[in-house]
Each structure stands twice: as structure tokens, then as C-alpha cells.
Amino acid sequence: MSKRIDVKDLDIYYGDFHAVKGVSMTIEPRSVTAFIGPSGCGKSTFLRTLNRMHEVIPGARVEGEVLIDGQNLYGKGVDPVDVRRQVGMVFQRPNPFPTMSIKENVLAGVRLNARRISSSAADELTERALRGANLWNEVKDRLDKPGSGLSGGQQQRLCIARAIAIQPEVILMDEPCSALDPISTLAIEDLINDLKSDYTVVIVTHNMQQAARVSDKTGFFNLKATGQPGQLVEFDTTQTIFNNPSQKATEDYISGRFG
Ligand SMILES: Nc1ncnc2c1ncn2[C@@H]1O[C@H](COP(=O)(O)OP(=O)(O)OP(=O)(O)O)[C@@H](O)[C@H]1O
Ligand SMILES: [Mg+2]
């Protein structure tokens, strides 16, 4: 299921504003890749180009290629809806649909994709996704209660279950723990570690310890000055980025000597 991503010379724009410049990288299947860097350097922008969510903003566009197992997401005739089914996304703030039950939240993405499923298949999928998101035991007796009745950490795992339920190849997460307490954060980190046996996982985080704990590879993004495009300064094994980076800007950032 898990897939390889090759980004080639990607430039990202919001209208005339060149937000991110010249990114090339390879993300291996069955791995966790973390993106770190100062606010405004384009981490979220770049992440959204990996499932064609960037272009939903009017005037937003990209140049370059993003290949998933060799297929260019931006190739002619590629349907962005298909892309988003292959590449799921979890956001910074848990965003379950408040009026839907826990179960309907898990199934929401599947229903949007207009896949008709029998009620026994729906039950099975709900259980599988909730187990995958490490939430099943906490909610199995209240599947018909609203998703909004869960704690923040549980809601974030529910959103991860919703992403898993559509059986993507890749899961993107933009600061998935920034609204969570330390215990829920550790639960999500454990889960990310489990997910990599089946998925390609890409996560944006401001938490350096988190990047060091959960990721195999780390990309450091930076921008030279305000108004300049963000760039990928260094991309390497997490071990190297944190212990022996090759760029001074990376070292300054990870050691807190930034700005
Ligand atoms: N919808 C938008 N329209 C125009 N410019 C945008 C839009 N979204 C982001 N930008 C700009 O693109 C640049 C990169 O923003 P982005 O949100 O990707 O940064 P980030 O690295 O994720 O920052 P943070 O760590 O604060 O989340 C910023 O200059 C930002 O102002
Ligand atoms: Mg961001």
C-alpha cells in the first residue's frame, strides 16, 4: 500500500507570490518524514502540494513534478479527487464533523468518495480504522455518540481513523499534536510509529523532540528573508540532521540559535 514520493524542482506560488522554491526530495515508502523550520517558511504550503490541496486556493499553482510511484500527480488528466484518495491528510486542529456520530465520522471520507458499502462492511471498516488509529477500545461502546464528545487527543485519533478508512497510500499530517496535551501527543506519536509499517507518513512539526522521536528522515526548510521564497535547506536522516547537519542554518535552528 505504501508508496514512494519523488518531488522534482517544485516551485509553489500564491498568485504572484513565490512561496517555496526549487524543492527536490525523495520520500521512501514505509517511513516517517518530518519537516521542520521557522514559521512562514512554507512547510504547510509544501505539504499541501503533495495531495493537490494547494490549488484549491484561488490563484495558487505549482511548477515542477510530484511523482507517486512514478506517476506525476500534476500530469494531464489526473483527477485531484483521486489524488486525495491516495494521499490522505490530517490537520493541526482535530476537525471531526460535530453533528456526526463517531462511526459516521470514520466513514465520512468513504461516503464522500461515493463508495457504496453494506452495513456489515461499514461495521468492519469502522472497527479496522479505529483499531488502526488506536482508538477502538476507548470508543467501541459509544460509536453512535457524537464525535465532538471526545477529548482533543481522541478527536485527533478519530481524524486519523477517518484518513485511514479511505485506505490511502500516504498520510500527511500538519502539526497534528500542536493542540494536544503531552499524554495525547505521545499517543499520537506511538500511532505514527505504527502507521509507518503500512503507510508513507509525512509530518510537519514545530516540536524538535517530536521530529527526533518519530521520523526517519527530516527536512529543514528556511527562508533567507521575509518576502523571499522558502527553500529546503537540508534533507537527510533524522540522525544526521540532529547530530551532524551539513548546513550552518540547520545547526543554528536545531540548537535554538535562530533569528
Ligand atoms: N492562502 C494563502 N494565500 C497567500 N499566501 C499564503 C497563503 N497561505 C500561506 N501563504 C504564505 O506562504 C508562506 C508560507 O506559509 P506556510 O503556511 O506554508 O508556512 P509554514 O512554514 O507552514 O508556517 P507555520 O510554521 O507558521 O505554520 C507565508 O509567507 C504565508 O504568508
Ligand atoms: Mg504551517
TrEMBL record:
<keyword id="KW-0813">Transport</keyword>
<dbReference type="InterPro" id="IPR003593">
    <property type="entry name" value="AAA+_ATPase"/>
</dbReference>
<dbReference type="GO" id="GO:0005524">
    <property type="term" value="F:ATP binding"/>
</dbReference>
<dbReference type="InterPro" id="IPR003439">
    <property type="entry name" value="ABC_transporter-like_ATP-bd"/>
</dbReference>
<dbReference type="InterPro" id="IPR005670">
    <property type="entry name" value="PstB-like"/>
</dbReference>
<feature type="domain" description="ABC transporter">
    <location>
        <begin position="5"/>
        <end position="248"/>
    </location>
</feature>
<dbReference type="InterPro" id="IPR027417">
    <property type="entry name" value="P-loop_NTPase"/>
</dbReference>
<protein>
    <submittedName>
        <fullName>Phosphate import ATP-binding protein PstB</fullName>
    </submittedName>
</protein>
<keyword id="KW-1278">Translocase</keyword>
<keyword id="KW-0547">Nucleotide-binding</keyword>
<keyword id="KW-0067">ATP-binding</keyword>
<dbReference type="InterPro" id="IPR017871">
    <property type="entry name" value="ABC_transporter-like_CS"/>
</dbReference>
<dbReference type="Pfam" id="PF00005">
    <property type="entry name" value="ABC_tran"/>
</dbReference>
